Structure formats: structure tokens, C-alpha cells
């Protein structure tokens, strides 16, 4: 940590900051510049809830040097984490594709989707049973019945399953039926929920919040990992920006960036990011080329009848064609698919 | 709702859209333009989960005409909602100021803060007992002990109390001790929590999410109100933008805008919005001038020792001086204070 | 400046950075922490185009300590700059209101607007003769004829005049007719234009770019001032954010922030910021309460017939009523109006 | 265009809107809904500077149906525009890579860069002679001497050349020396400059402004094309968002989106977008996979000594390796390279 002080600060003010730092276990190294005094503080800032330095007289600002996350960082673990679930391995040499409908709507819909995405090469099945919807008047999910259908689809196809949990109730149900628990973008900083999935023993798919910085996203993963659960798959799904011609702005640079900062696998959801079926294919290919470990893609047997996110869902035929393209791109960047 | 179709779409495609609309209870009015066909659809879009129109051949986009919220809208209720709690009335003629520390840290700290803000003219006391923190290693709040202290401070000073709830557990405790339940910015779209506070019977202070649009914010209020609870205080607390020289960007225009769209009272939190003590005063004055019904201000007996948000907390003396200024501005805009 | 290096960087890499710093005239102070090496560098970073430190082996990042602007900073000049033009003084004790139509459209329109805003208490007249329009098919301004009308209106009413310049041609004409040259938001980083107005000898009204940080805005002012022209009025006019329910997001916090960082006066344009007539009044009042030195307000004799920005223009009667309100708020915050 | 009116608006107000529309040559189709009246207006909105509808009594909002651009749209021209310059074709079957230093610094630097990027397969050379810099104290470019060096490098290597122009002066010089004129992000809405390059007879590389919407970007291209110059290459270079861990947020979805809306070629600049050498490769590969027609990449013989943008410049060896990777990705998506 570096404390920047006004160069005109009297010696007592500088001394007060140094004393405060030493009191908290830091070693202080003051450097007197022309117009500023800079105090380098050696020690671990993350151990201390609040130093109150910013409010001390003469202090202009405090610049943290260390990243605030520990367990999820590359410094804590150099090799990649590979999350294994059923036949799927996320974060390894291959590309892991998870596909399925936004919401589980019926037995027919889900089983048909499951068979088709499995046949086209997906290794995981997604499907929402508890849907966080912007409007209280929208379809909110089949709840336990949806979970049961996911389990049935898994038995039939051998796909691993992913579903979103939104609170303690849905979590307690989901752990009985599915393989991976998803934390949705709107709950990325629902810290209680993060702690609960951290104690669940299940792998977690953690979506980036729609206005979360990369650092906040990794801190959310740190919440989970600090509860003892390191089986975390990060999922970039677009951020909110001024641009409204796509639903969100897919931040693909975050993929190589996060992979340099953390050992956790990173996948990409081009369906929610773009909100537009015709952009899903190009962005899925781009994600693979950028180094993503996998994809999360919405596929619906009949998108026009989908109870949610129809406009961004691929038909099974479109999905199968995309899988072919993805194999070619994966091979081009030296990845099995 | 208006459906925009490509002007070259064949008659069958136009007919299919019209049939789909009529099937869902709408009356369709097609208008043939030079390069586009526009179909006006009369009926209530909000009643229908999904029409799937966007995915039909020939359709370019669907433009909603009605706002998605009902109960919270000015159309549903012309007169202002006034939330009454203890001696405080939020949304009436007067200005309601809520003040106190970010977190309840100790009996001494809270009681001192309560006495001082009460003496300076605040009508509500804020204080966090369950703190959602970006880092799992930061102070997370005193929990039930904090709630007890809030209740004690209320008894001693006559202030109404506000505290944040983050899940079912904290909610069940908070209803026993405090007057108003706060939903924090990070939980604004935690729809389960919104439903729970909607059923709690307590007034709710609903902070705007840091990347929530005004419409999403009102939809979050609609979640609460659709559970039968219309005692909602909206709180603007800054949004996330590219500008990093303040912690968030206080969106003061949202105050008069929301007051034109909804009957609910709107207050402003200049402390979290700016993150900088020296900007709290000017922004508090500006909020009153813009028509805010009240303010939420962080005050700490000794900000340098605060366990969170010290840099943005006012000292009691600063708060008392600010209250004087606010009275003058309130009077200038025709408001009692 | 502080250079952060990986704690595992070998001694040669650290020495190379120190040598590079010393070569450029800095004194280097290395501090060895647990996982990072921090090198404090004393000297003036702003004098050097590029040090290339970020690309040296072992370097993680470089943290600047000094602000990049000099002449416009409070450190360079403690007292407020007051820009005087005609009877107007911007940055002094009083509130300076500039009003008028978005574009000069005709002699009748401009003279009527000028008389009315003058009668209501404005001290400056605005009116665009060269209009930067998003569409090449929109009205682009009356050019020199518009400038002549501004000069006529000035003679008749005694108002000072402001008009936007967009290139060398418009600048050379404008200096002959008007008192203050405006740099529009879209040209805030048109550095050639900034240099030209810096050499013009005329006061400059510098609008903040719609995605400019406060620092970039002050750097644009530095461009003007580094050419010898310190008569600069900064104008906050809203920034671009995800929120689309107002045209832009008025960043009022920037007013007290910039006044703490710089000695230059700051005014606010609530018309362009909100794009909505009904929000102009509340935001104008808020700007005064936040400490703005003045306002820029669009007024049109008949907004429904305006060739641009009709929806955000006040009628003369609305403007006169607003001026009354502004006087009350100004008085409440201790300002003459 | 669709005009939305309050359902309680009296018949005279509705009639007034209809009359105004008909007066301007539109045919009006009113539809009476439950709570709103919607008037469909058939005609070309783009022909009319201002209708003033938004300010008419009873009108809530006006929804445009047509895109505001004409000449650059896919509707105006179905087949792709291919810009040919020297041996390069941008927008055709192959991938066109433009590379070189941010700024022309010296004869040695530029010629070495030119030889190396040419050897690795680039078809165009970039190099700034007029540099728009945030600080007036930074290196501003070699001006005409830089242009002369670009011409020399072109003669020696056969590369086509691109350089940024910032005003009339630089434009008049650049047309004498280089093949393609670049409009930088900060000048994307410098409409005078757009008109000038539109009349220059030279191909134009138009960078997206850092907070420009896709629609505004296409409108800037429309400015150029409306002057008779359709040789336009669009360049996505990152937009400004809340995320600060990369210099900008590369909006790759804009590539397939713009290619669906317009016939113009689109290239991507991963160097300015990310500001970080280690992210340039992944984002360049992703851009090709997303369907970009080419790339703009910063390469410097010795990035550590670069006068600008060193941290994001590739070394010649890194660039050569990247070109190999790009060939593989291009082949995987069916594109020659």
C-alpha cells in the first residue's frame, strides 16, 4: 500500500500516519517528493478491515498495491484448475460446451433439447427451474418439477446438469438433483448465497454481474473459495454499457485477462451477452479464439414458443452447425473439441 | 405494443404475426409504410409472459408502448404516497433526514451517533448490522447484537430506525427490532428478498442498484408492492459509470423523473454516491433543490476509526452544520424542514 | 510516480528500472515488500513523453502520483478565476445565467429570445450559428448570418454572447462577432481547435465531452491555458451512461469536485443533460445548490417550432419563473443572483 | 415513425398531431388503445429537420422506425463494399492486416517496422504523423517529415499507408503522401473533418468514437459518404465502460452487427482497445473468428523506447508469430489470409 500525502503536510501529520501504519503492523517507508510525500507501507492490507488512513489530515489518497483476492489468484496456484463433473472437464485441454433452454418448460421440451445438444457434442445441459425475472408478472420457473426433469434428462443422455439457485430454498433442492449450481449475474454480489454455495460441496458456475469489474468478480469467487469450495467456473456474459444495440456488451478481453490473474476456468455465454440469435455464432467462435474454456449457449427446440429468451435461443439445427464451426476454431487455436 | 416488420415480408408472414397477436388477445392494426410494415397491437402486453414475436420471420423488432410497472406508477395513483414511521413522514411536505453510521460497531458509537443526529434534526437512524462486503475478509456486522443496539437507540432518542436485510435470516431478526427494512443496491434484483420484504408488513427503503435503470428500479418496487406492501421509499445512491473520480455518479435527474413516473417517495444518499466527505454537503443540498423527499447521510462520531466507509462519513459537527444549510435550501424550494 | 514490480524480479531487473529512472532525472527509492517491490520515483513525470517503464521486465504497473494538469490546478492558483465579459462575471459571488435558443434560426426568433432572457435576468445570450449535427441531413446552422444576428441582439440588449466554433473557419468568423467561444462536447478533445481558441484572445466556454473523465476535461482546459488563455469557463452538460431515460446523466458531483481541483469557474447545462423540459428546472436548482457558478439554459420563443432541441427548450415564461426560483436557491446557499 | 400519446388526450390534441404530420407530408394512422393512442406515420422522417412533435400537448414520445442512415446501409447496397488500396483489399475474401508503430518517430524506426510487418504478411503500414494527445506536454508527432517517411517506407516495401488527419492542414499534407486517411476516435464526430475527408478522394479509415453507439458510428460514415466518398473502412477500437482493468472494452459483437447493418468493411484494433500487449494476440484471433475483415495492430521495433503506446505494441517477433496464428483462425472460419 502507498499513502500519498500533500507535500505541505506538517511533520506531525506525516508522523501520525506512520504511527497508525506501525500500530497496524506495517513497516512505513516515507519518500519526500517535490509536491507530495509518498509513504510505502509493507505488510498485508487484506488482513485489516479498516485503517482509516484516508480520513487523516494531510492524506490525499491510498493506493493499494496487492490484489484483494488471494485463493483464486494465479499467485496462490500456478496450474489451471480443472472442474470435473460427469464426463465434462472445464479448464482442461478440451472445449466444454453447455447448452439447453433458458427455462425448463416441460418434459418434452427439456428432453428434446437434451437429446439434441448431446447429439451435437455438448457435455452439459443448462435449464432454469428458478428464474429471476425483471417483472413479477413473468413466468418464474417450474421449481422442483423442473429440477426433476433435469435429473431425468441427465440420466437419459449422460449430460451433466447446471441450474441457477437464488436462495437457500432453491439451493437445498438443487443440490439433490443437479451437478453444478449456477449463480446468476444479478446475484453475483449476494454474499450470503455465495457463502452457501461455497459450503454446498457442488461445483459452482459463477456469472459475472452485469456491472461487476473483473476484480469484483474474482472477489465473489473468493467468497466461495474461502468457504472451502474451489470448484468454480467463471462465466463472462456481457456487461452493461451505454451501447444498446446489443443486450449487453460481451467483454471478451476479460477471458485472457482473468486467465492471467486466476487459475479458475472461464467460459462465455454469448446468448445472454448479445440477446440476438444471429450474433451468437460469431461471438461463440470469437470466445473460443480468445481462449475461453467453454461456452454456455441457449438452445430451444422451438424458440418462437420459448417462455423466456426466445430471440436469443438457437434451434437445434443451428446449434449443431455451430458446434462444427467451433471444432474448427478450437483446432486452429490448439484446443481439442 | 408495436411490431416492426420488413416491408418486403410476404403477406403470409404478416398474417402469421397478426394471428399470433389475436391468439393472445390483442387487436392488430397493420400499417404499410414504404420500407417497413408496422403493426399496432392493442391489449395488455404485461399479462403475457412471452409472445415470441421477435423470432417470427419478417419481424425486425417489437417496441413496447406501455411501461412494464403498474402498481407503483402515477397512473395507478395520482397523489403522493407518504410513508409514516414513528415521527417521520417521508414523501410529505417536509424533508426527512435519516442519518447514522454505515455499520453498528458498538453501543457507545451507536448511541453517541443517535443522540447527535437526533439533536441536529434527523428523524431516522441508520446503522448496518448485516453488512454485504466486497471482501470475505472484511467486517461483516454485529448481526443481532447490532439490531438490539438500534432498538435501544430508538427507545432513547425517539428516532425511527432503518437497517439492511440480506436474506431470510437477517429479515426475520430485523422485523423484531427495527422500523424500516433496507434493500441494498447489490440486492435490488434479489427478487426472492424483494418478495419477502413485500410480505413483511414493514416499510421498505429500496436502494437503486448500481447499474439499474430507472425502469428496473421501479420494477423492483413493483415486486414489493405486488406482495401487498406499498410502503416503499426509493433511494438514489449513485450509479456506476466510466467516471472514477467519484465512487459512483449520483444521478440526481432520477429524482424528478421518478417522481413524475411514480407516486412513491424518493430520497438520496450522497454519502455512498460520492464516497467523499467533502462532496456530501453540496450533493445533499442539490438533492433537496432537485425535489428529493429526504436524505440518507452517513455520520460517525469518529470517522477515522470507522470500520467501514470512514472517508465518506461526516462528523457530528459537520452534520449539524449541514442540517442548517439544508433547512435554508428546503425553504427556498418551498419545503418544510 | 510509483513503479510496482513483482517481488520475485531478479536484482538486475530492479536495477534496470532504477537506472532508467535516474537516466530520466528521477531519484529512485526502492521498497521491498513481501510480494511486491515498490519503487518511489521523485521528479516531474509530466516533463517526459514516455519512459517505457511499463514494458520493462518485472514491472507490473506504474502509478502516477501527480495530476497531469498544471496551469488549471488549484495548486497553481489558489483564488478563483473570474471570467468577465460585458456585464457578466462568471466565477465570482453572483450566479451568471446564459440563455437562448439552441440554434439561431431567424432575426425574429433570436431578438425575441434575447429580449426575454435579458428581461428575466440572464447576462449572456447563447445561440448556435455552426451546429454539429449527428445527421448530415439535419439543419447545420445559419453560419455568418447567425453571428451577425447575435451581434445585433447583443447591441440591443447589452447581453454578452456565446457561440460554438467547430473549426478554423467558424472560429475566424466568430471572433469578429461574439464575446465567448464555445467548444462543444464532441470537440472537447479536438486538440487543434483547443489550441486555436487558446490563441484567440477570447474567453472560452469548454463543455465536458460526453464520455470525458474529469481529468480529461481539465487536460482539455490545460491545452487552452498552455496557449496563454486562462479565461476558461467549464461547463458540465451530462455524461453518457447506461441510463437512457434521460438524454445524458448530469454529473453534478463534478461541480464541487472540479472546483476543489481547479480555480476555473464551472457552470451547468441542464437542458442538454436531461433533454427534457420538465427536468430542466429541478436540475438547474440543484446545480445552484451544488455550487455551480452559472447555468446555460435553452430558451426558445416557440419550442414546438425549434429547428433543434425543441423538447428540452423552455418557453420564455417558464424561464422567467425558473429565474425566480434560482434566485431563492442562490440566496439560500449564500450567493448573489 | 410512431407517435405515442396519452390515452386521455382530448380529440383536438390528437387532431393537432395528425395535422402536423400531414402538413409535413406524412400519412397518419391513429390507433386507439386502452391507455395510449398510437399514431403510425408513413413517410421519410429523415427528410425533415424537426417536426416538434415531442413538444405537442398529449404527446408522450416519438419512436423512430427507420434507421437514420441511408447510403451506408445494407438496404442501399446488398453486396459488400471492398476497399482496394495498393495490393490490399479490405472487405473481400481475405483478411487484411495493417500494422506499424503508433507514431512515426524516426527513419530507422519506421523503415525497420515496415520491413518487418511486410515480411510477416501485413498489407498496410500505419504510423501517426499528427498525434492527438491528451496532454499538451506530450510528443505531438513529426508532422510533414513523418508523412515523407511513410511515403519512403511505402516505396521500399510496397505496403499501402494509413495515417491520421486531425484538421484541414494535416489533411492537405496527408493526401500528398499516404493512401488512406484515418479519422481517430476522438474526431469521429468532428463533422467538418468528416466532410473534408469525404471530399478528399482518398479511402478513409473511420475509428469508432470511444463512447459512440453503433448508430452514431454509421452516421459518421454517412457524413463521409454523403460527400460522394464510399471508400470507407470502419474500425472498432474499444469503447469506454466502467471496467478499468483494460484500457477500453473491445466491443467485438459490433463486428457482426455492423456487417449486418452496413455494406462497409469492418476491421478491429486490439492494441488500442486493450492497451496491453498480452491481450492483443487473443483479441486479434477473436476478431478474425467474429468475422472482422482485417486488423490494425501496433508493432514497434523496440516497444520500450516507443514515444507513445509502448505497453500495447508488439515486437516484430511477436507480430510474426501472431500472423501465423491468425492464418489458422482465418482458415477455420473460411477466410483466406
From TrEMBL, chains A, B, C, D:
Protein name (Swiss-Prot/TrEMBL): 3-deoxy-7-phosphoheptulonate synthase
Gene3D superfamilies linked: Aldolase class I (3.20.20.70), Phospho-2-dehydro-3-deoxyheptonate aldolase, domain 1 (3.30.70.1140)
Keyword Transferase: yes
This protein's record includes keyword DNA-binding: no
Domain spans labelled DAHP synthase ferredoxin-like: 1-67
Highest taxon in the source lineage: Bacteria
Keywords: Transferase
Gene from which the chain derives: aroF
Taxonomic path: Bacteria, Bacillati, Bacillota, Clostridia, Eubacteriales
Enzyme Commission number: 2.5.1.54
Matching PANTHER family: PHOSPHO-2-DEHYDRO-3-DEOXYHEPTONATE ALDOLASE
Gene Ontology molecular functions: 3-deoxy-7-phosphoheptulonate synthase activity; aldehyde-lyase activity
Entry's Gene Ontology BP terms: aromatic amino acid family biosynthetic process
Limits of the DAHP synthetase I/KDSA domain: 87-327
